[in-house]
Amino acid sequence: MNLLVKPMVCCPQRFVVHLCTHSTKTYHVTSKHQNKIMEKLVGAAGGNQAAGGAGGASSYEALKKLDQQWLQMRSMTTTTQGMMMIATRKNKRRQEEEQVFDAVVCGGTLGVFLATALALKGMKVAIVERGPLRGRVQEWNVSRKELRELVKIGVLTDAELEDVIAVEFNPSRVGFDGGTEVWVKDILNLGVSPEKLIATCKKRFLGAGGVVLEGMGVSKVNVFDDAAVVLLDDGTTLVSRLILDVMGNSSPIVRQIRWGQRPDGVCLVVGTCARGFENNSTSDLIYTRTPVTQVGSSKTQYFWEAFPAGSGPRDRTTYMFTYLDATPNRPSLEQMLEDYWDLMPPYQGIKLEDVEILRVLFGLFPTYRSSPLPAAFDRILQVGDASGIQSPISFGGFAAITRHLSRLSSGLMDALESDLLDKENLALLNPYLPNLSGVWMYQRAMSVQLDINPSPDFINNLLSINFQCMEKLGDPVIRPFLQDVIQFVPQAKLLISIMVNKPLFIPQILQQVGFLPLLDWTRHFIALAAYSVLWLAIAPSLLSWVESLPKEKQYVWRRQLEAWQYGSGFDYNG
């Protein structure tokens, strides 16, 4: 079976911290002094202007705080007694209020795109953002196809799209220690300025009549029969027909829904943006240069990615990340960051004392098999990372949500216009997607299991074989996969190619994955085939019939057709 890796999309939400500096001082970083180094960077930043979503905090203390959350997550020290009830359902009708919004979007950093799309269609929309509604300094890396989704839904013009691109580069490398090296073009090859992008969308949102409430967090949501009432932490009350939760993995509503659940998978990532790279015209989508590594009392496989940064021709962002389960003896972010200082220079072919550290980045991304998250309450829907729509390999953020903006904006308009805002109808907007669910086996194959002791080179060999076969099969197989799209025919071709060319490697794969995960993957793979047939053979004949149905039935069938399309990967258009 084919066990693959998708490049981590470099636009994480909520659990990321970055530290900024505009100092010209060169830092010689060692693991013993990283506390002092990071605090110097914060001090040099002069004021630490925070941005919503990724990059909200900025100190060594923030790293320790995030590590404490990671410790609690893998130790399961939380209890049901300590659960904070943010969202509650009330049976009685609310009192009439003067102003009722069609939608209140909680979490503006990524929520502003959907909010703007709805406002442009005539909906009365408000955005609630705990901090200031502005983008971070660090670029988001996406493909042009993904970015054009914002033009498709009217959020950006063609000219504005070009203006928000901070840097463009080609080609990109995929490579594994001692094995295959593949070069591709036009995949995650744009660095988009979140500052410009969010400022542009915010201006268009306000121009369409939208309301922005900054510096206010969500304290409570009470759902009544005819509306939802949002209480903000400054005492402000908003009444809305629909609440969109775009607050990412750290959403308090998501924490309530998933309370007591241990994540099925976690990605830990550390990195920097630094100045001083002479050869800086290409990127790495995913790269390894070491076998399985002992980190503390646990073993893990380190992966790398790197991109030119838009802040200068010699500026480069490098990330080191790993996939883990959430068991107690897994390494901390601080341990990984110490390894990063040692491993990044030979990876990039530089000396640490020759580069200027501009930003330090680190993040924690938990994912769950029960995703996308179905609506748990009437009038509340999780969107983006909050819903778990991201792949457990690519880990979401900006590029993950753009793929679904067209589907979500049209679906939400249908729901609002037909007043289909109960949890059963809203759940149709976060449907089962077999191509997403099947990726869990890939995540397992790329992480070192505690109860299995594979060869230190197993993961590198596995990925090398997969990409070697994909390269031979050509663009129709490798390009969709590298853009976070799983399709049945390319996957079937790859499976056959591996079985024919590397039959002796199959038993090792089965040992690494395990019988039950393999059985689970088989179920999703069969569903992927079924969804492909339904979309290609059945859906075209249903389109005119669906349009003849009453609005309520149209809503249900449109969501079903979208589930077949997106669940089979046929939303991908090259």
What does this 3D model show about the protein?
InterPro entries: FAD/NAD-bd_sf (IPR036188). Keywords: Membrane, Transmembrane, Transmembrane helix. Strands 1-21-15-20-19-16-7-8 form an 8-stranded mixed β-sheet, with helices on both faces. Strands 10-4-3-14-22 form a 5-stranded parallel β-sheet, with helices on one face. The chain has 20 helices and 22 strands. With 574 residues, it is an alpha/beta fold. Helix 3 packs across helix 11 (405-418), helix 6 packs antiparallel against helix 7 and helix 11 packs antiparallel against helix 20. Strand 17 and strand 18 form a beta hairpin. Residues 1-28 and 53-58 have low confidence and may be disordered. The longest helix has 33 residues, at 515-547. It is globular.
Strand content: 15-25%
Number of strands: 22
Low-confidence stretches: 1-28, 53-58
Task: Tell me the number of helical segments per DSSP (H or I, 4 or more residues long).
Answer: 20
Strand order of the largest sheet: 1-21-15-20-19-16-7-8
For the biggest sheet, the summary is: 8 strands, mixed
Distance between the termini: 25 Å
The best one-word shape is globular
Structural class: alpha/beta
Residues in helix, %: 25-40%
Q: Compute the CA-based radius of gyration.
A: 23 Å
Q: Averaging pLDDT over every residue, what do you get?
A: 88
